[in-house]
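Intended use. Records like the one below are meant for learning the mapping from a protein sequence to its folded structure. Do not use them to infer anything beyond what is encoded.
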Amino acid sequence: MPLFLHRLVWPPAAPPVLAGSRNPPPKTYTALHRSSSFSAAFPRLLHPCGAGRVEGSSSFDPATFEADRVRLDAEARAAMASAAASAEEGGDDPKAWKWRIRKRNWDIMEAEDIARNPRPVHHRIPNFAGAAAAADSVIMYCILAPSGDCGGRLEVFQKAQCVKVNPDSPQKQVRFLTLTGGKKLLTPQPRLRTGFFSVLESQMLSSGSIMEACTSVGAAKYGRPISLDEKIKVDLIVIGSVAVDPRTGARLGKGEGFAELEYGILRYMGAIDDTTMVVTSVHDKQLVDDIPVEKLLVHDVAVDIICTPTQVIFTNSTIPKPQGIYWEKLSPEKLGQIRILRELKKRIERETGQVLPCGASEKLPPTAQRR
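Structure written out for the chain above:
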């Protein structure tokens, strides 16, 4: 099946231009000018601020929440750094190729001063120069495009009412524009370790609090926590990436697998299905052509659309989307880090009367271990 590359510019003066066949893929990308019951059982688990507040409490301590988030972030990045170092040393790590691609992109972004705070961008979903412009593309083409624009090619997105967006820095503008565009925003707490998902809507917020609500602390402060029993339909998923292949839609995150876990949980909830489009916003320098599709794992999430500061790319990806959580891929250590997964596992085992499988043990550095 041939894959094609669309390049769009806003406002659209004409239907999108088909750049041509991507087999073989183009070597360069031309820049375009742009105009500017369960909730009752586990109340602490499902509240987005975890230890900072319990369900029903009116108090919220932003400083405590942020300190906990920063601590967990530092520990997780130390764990990723250790995994990356082990991969560079060789051995039998089947994920070593992923770390090499990630490191190359992180190094390029720092060396060419594309990176933006928080820095260094290593072991993060990297913030980048032009992140706001890439966010504009996500919103304009995937969420707010009026009927008839873009040659009618994006009709599937025009009715999006609920958008799930990752909590990382380069997607902050996506979260902001989703809320100010009158859409429902679903965002996870970072690494799912301090909570679950929060829902935010503009009518829940004052005009002066919308920007704060786009931060992790703000989402915990203003968002409505949901449970696994929530009846919600997600129309569009926006995720961050470290590297993405425009030929296939293959994507690499920062190496923890939380985008995949979040996707699997939403599949379990019935909030998404195979038709739910997945979009990523990245810098053009994050586009790569050496992610081997045959080495991807069953839980890896590919993307349908890539938005950069200069272009919008439709990948026409044929990579199968994950169907849920693949418990046999989850190590006991990873399961021990995320309470919502432990409770979900218990729930499924209780409902089915069967013990779910567990993945092989993995060695975590001392800073990443949890009691």
